[in-house]
Amino acid sequence: MGYELKYKTKTIILPDFKDIPVGLIRKSRYEDPQTQMFTLLEGWVSEEDLAVLDTIPAGEFGVKMAEWTGGASLGES
Predict the structure, then answer these.
(1) Side-chain half-sphere of 75: how many Cα atoms within 13 Å?
(2) Domain range annotation of the chain
């Protein structure tokens, strides 16, 4: 299963947050939370999906990311 991120007429399926590959976590482990989130997204989703994400207003994007992660940080499972 995954998280359905819907924006306007587009839907992006993000994998379950608990299934993050360790390599992506390792690459971003010293970064601030915002940079970590973008590292994960850029490592996971297609260029087409990134283009959709780029159109989401910042406030709505933050809400959707909190829903996807369930409020967990990368160090939490």
Answers:
(1) 5
(2) 2-69
